[in-house]
# Entry
Amino acid sequence: NRNGLVAEILDIGEQRLFSAAAATGRTVELDLASFETVVAGAKEIDSDHIISINLSAKTLEVKDFDAGWLLNTLMRYGISPARVIVELTERDPIVDVKRLHDNVRRLGEY
# Structure
């Protein structure tokens, strides 16, 4: 459960949390858990506010990245994709520029 992962370790602090995820190969899992947690909380924010969510290059480069999952998560919580800006973090280097570009393009389709 992605929300459970975030809930268990919220008190560690963002930097230590993402460092621990990177050290254990769980950066993508934490990114997606964080995305869902932010979206779940964002339903309480007025609909005229933009929501900015950070994802790592590593997450956007994984072979099985699914822009549809992100969209379905937004829809499940009643958040319009037009309110969301996905930002690329500086945590990880870009390794596969083409895959990153293709996945960002897919996000832009929504």
Observations:
- The two ends are 25 Å apart (CA to CA).
- The beta strands are 51-55, 84-88.
- The chain has a mean pLDDT of 84.
- The CA atoms of residues 7 and 59 lie 20 Å apart.
